[in-house]
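Section: Multi-chain targets

For targets with more than one molecule, the full set of components is provided together so that the structure can be written out for the assembly as a whole rather than chain by chain. Components appear in the order listed by the source. The example entry contains two components.
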Amino acid sequence: MKLTIKTKLIGGCTGLLLVILGVAGIGALSLFSLRKSAFQTTRVGDRLNAQSLEIQVHTLQAEGLVREYLNAIKKLGAEQAKETYLDEAEFEVNEIQNLAANLVKISPTEELRAKFARIPVAAGEYTQALDNVVMNAGKTGDPEELKQSLGAYEKAAMALRESAEDGEVGGKEASQTSQLEIEATSRRSVLLVSVASLLGMALALTMSITLLRAILLPVEHLKEVAENVSMGNLDLAVRRFSDDEIGELADSFSRMVTAVKFFRMEAESSQTEVEAGGVR
Amino acid sequence: MSALSEKVVAISKPYFGPATEAFLNRQCKAHLNIEVAALAQPHLKELSKWVQTSGALLMDAAKAAELAGKIANL
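Its structure, encoded as tokens over all components, is:
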């Protein structure tokens, strides 16, 4: 295919446009990915943190209700106290289990998942210990048994509290990790966009210089030849730089210079002949 | 003008432009002792030689050789 000036210009401009679009595309993509990553990591970190705190609140509420229950046994009787306080405490423990299960599901790392997985186990042990307390409190028999079950209950409550606190620490760490991830993604995006922009600029510069050389060099050469011819110097070779309109112009110019040279030689030769005839 | 003469003129036109006929006439008369119109197949080798030699005085030697080659191959 013959590359005309028009084709070169259209190709060059299209190339430049593609380079600009490419750089803009990479920029937009990086920004989009950064935004998505920031949104996701922040959301997960915040949820872990918030739900861990919520678990702690439910733990404290459950313990408070159990304390109320224990105090109310003498006043209201075991059955009435259970109905008044323990149903609500059960609800709190259920909430703890639901929240912990959700946290295990959304935890981004294995370590965090293990941390949150301890909460439902501790909640199960807490429920078991509470059932024992309720069973012994309902009996009118051995106060030692009630004391032992209360001790076991305290232990289970402490274990639940600790696992909830561990969860909260894990949530905070996840939040910080999210922050670090966002910063890392941001740095990566800036680097990517900078490299793409630099490459794009280098490519655009190379293309512009190539395009300018393809047009300017032959035109400047033709101008030089035309100036020489106009001053009577016909001994200058007309170079053909490219197979395009300027190349065709060079051919025409070369043809014209050849013809002028020939006619001048003919004229000089005729003049010499005339002069030689005159001398004779 | 014979068909062969016309072919030679047509081939030489892109190289000599308006001076084509005069240039060829000059070569034919000076070196072959004939008019361009009388060019025949046996003259082509000699004409080609002179086109290359004289053409090189007026244009790039490579272009003159290219034209000479085209004439010789007619």
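The helical segments of chain A are 5-76, 78-106, 110-138, 143-230, 245-279.
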